[in-house]
Write a structure and sequence with these properties.
heterodimer, A: 250 residues, alpha/beta, Rossmann fold, 7-stranded parallel sheet, 7 strands, B: 245 residues, 8 helices, 16% strand
């Protein structure tokens, strides 16, 4: 119980990697606040987290909605007194589409959830953490935020943006003792990859062949990396940590 | 024994140095049994302080034959090898104009070939186990130019290259190979720098506004050695207070 009395604020925390991370932190004793869409999923996640003996606050809303993000951060501080750690995990995957066929609507939606959502989350988390004397933010990009991806350029562009937002925010927030890092999962047993693998089995097999460890990562392995960055990596900030079975080693 | 490294056997080189002593202590605190090596016989006292979970061998990482003794000791004393930390290294100030071929060869002999020797030496034992984790200790000098440290810095770039290639090649054996890149740490090298530019001068270059405690570097090493990092290989983990953000 290394996080008793601490809190984690997690976006997209009612499923996949976000929920796995929420549960991982909860097993260490942290109280959990979730900002996510889908009230029914929030209720299920809340019950699962509270069963571990910690408090859980859920806020129904989208990370693309500035009012919702501002409210969620304020509600968490009000309920728990502080936000020690934040994991900005809400994300959206792209259809497999050549750039000339990709609609502006889909491009914008990918930028909205992945890049704008990360921006808005940090915009309100950093002042809250500064006010309490420090904190740790972990964003969620992707191996696709570090190396190129054909036919999913908007997703990759948005994830590259998440890495860039992270590094700049880390420099800005360091003086406030707020660390900002980003995990970059490869193929992982979150919803995004599982859905992709089901829809595009041939592409998924090709992608997996580029992961030297030769298997899909478990969402628990991403959760463990987020815990390391938030709890143990006290001198690491502005860092992009791949959890990708060696995918980005080239 | 509980801890992040419970039941793991780890070989740690350079264990008598400032960073190495802290690493040895924390590895054991996390449940590891450790084979400590160093050219400096003070390593014996480091091992003695840690009790039955540690043993020491006088050893120069650049000496290939010496590695056979290290592996034999790990097998005999602790029954195998799960982890290797290539922590031994030499540092020094040089300029491009004046660095001698002999000095450059020495940096490579210890900082690069020493690590290669270690990786090659532990491979059979790790394959026997069916998995392994290797952590090489570089420096943020492997990410950027560090004028005045050309020999040291270039050798750390090479160690970074070795790490990536070893990660890609050894993944099939479930052997993970990762790199830790410390920035300014509260050890002798930084004390020397502080003597020339002042303590505030060094800290002012670090976004977090301070130098690292040696423990903070070791926390990164422990994570990468542990099963918590089981899907991480070829990673270059900076522990630099945001210096290279």
């Amino acid at each position: 119980m290394t996080l008793a009395g601490k809190t984690l604020f997690v976006t997209g925390g009612n499923s996949g990697i976000g929920l796995a991370t929420a549960l991982h932190f909860a097993r260490e004793g942290a109280d959990i606040a979730i900002l996510a869409r889908r009230a029914d999923s929030n209720a299920v996640a809340k019950a699962e987290i509270e069963a571990l003996g910690v408090r859980c606050l859920t806020i129904d809303g989208s990370v693309t909605d500035e009012t919702a993000v501002e409210h969620a951060v304020a509600a968490t501080v009000k309920a728990f007194g502080r936000i020690d750690c934040a994991f900005n995990c809400a994300g959206l995957n792209q259809s497999v589409t050549p750039i000339e066929s990709l609609s502006l609507e889909e491009f914008s939606a990918l930028m909205d959830v992945n890049a704008r959502g990360t921006f808005l989350s940090m915009k309100y988390q950093i002042p809250a953490m500064r006010a309490q004397g420090g904190g740790a933010i972990c964003n969620c990009a992707s191996a696709a935020g570090l190396i190129p991806s054909a036919f999913q350029v908007a997703y990759a562009g948005a994830k590259f943006a998440v890495v860039g937002l992270t590094r700049g925010a880390a420099l800005e927030a360091a003086k406030d003792k707020v660390r900002v890092n980003v995990v970059c999962p490869g193929a992982t047993t979150g919803e995004m990859w599982l859905q992709f693998a089901e829809q595009h089995p041939d592409r998924a097999a090709l992608a997996l062949a580029k992961h030297p460890l030769g298997r899909v990562g478990d969402k628990e392995e991403v959760a463990a990396a987020v815990l390391f960055l938030c709890r143990d990596a006290t001198f690491t900030t502005g860092h992009a940590l791949p959890v990708d079975g060696g995918r980005t080693t080239g | 024994m509980t801890g992040q490294l419970a039941n793991k056997v780890v070989v740690l080189t350079g264990a008598a140095g400032g960073q190495g002593r802290v690493a040895a202590r924390l590895l054991v605190a996390e449940g590891a049994r450790v084979v400590l090596t160093d050219r400096d016989p003070d390593g014996a006292a480091v091992a003695e302080d840690l009790g039955a979970s540690a043993c020491y061998l006088a050893h120069d990482v650049a000496d290939r034959d010496g590695w056979a003794r290290v592996v034999a000791a790990a097998n005999a004393r602790f029954g195998g090898i799960d982890g290797l930390v290539n922590n031994a290294g030499i540092a020094g100030r040089d300029t491009v104009e004046t660095l001698s071929a002999e000095a450059m060869t020495r940096y490579f002999a210890v900082n690069v070939i020493g690590a290669l020797n270690g990786i090659q030496a532990v491979l059979p034992a790790m394959r026997e186990r069916g998995a392994g984790a290797i952590v090489n200790i570089a420096s943020i000098s492997a990410l950027r130019a560090t004028p005045g440290l050309v020999g040291y810095g270039t050798s750390k770039w090479a160690l970074r290259g070795l790490t990536r290639n070893a990660a890609a090649e050894l993944a099939a054996d479930r052997i993970r190979v990762n790199l830790v890149l410390p920035g300014a740490v509260d050890v002798q090298m930084i004390k020397d720098a502080e003597a020339s530019v002042g303590k505030a001068g060094v800290a002012a270059q670090v976004p977090l506004g301070r130098v690292a405690a040696a423990e903070e570097i070791v926390r990164a090493t422990i994570f990468l050695l542990s099963d918590a990092a089981s899907y991480i290989t070829g990673e270059e983990l900076t522990v630099d207070g945001g210096w290279c953000a």
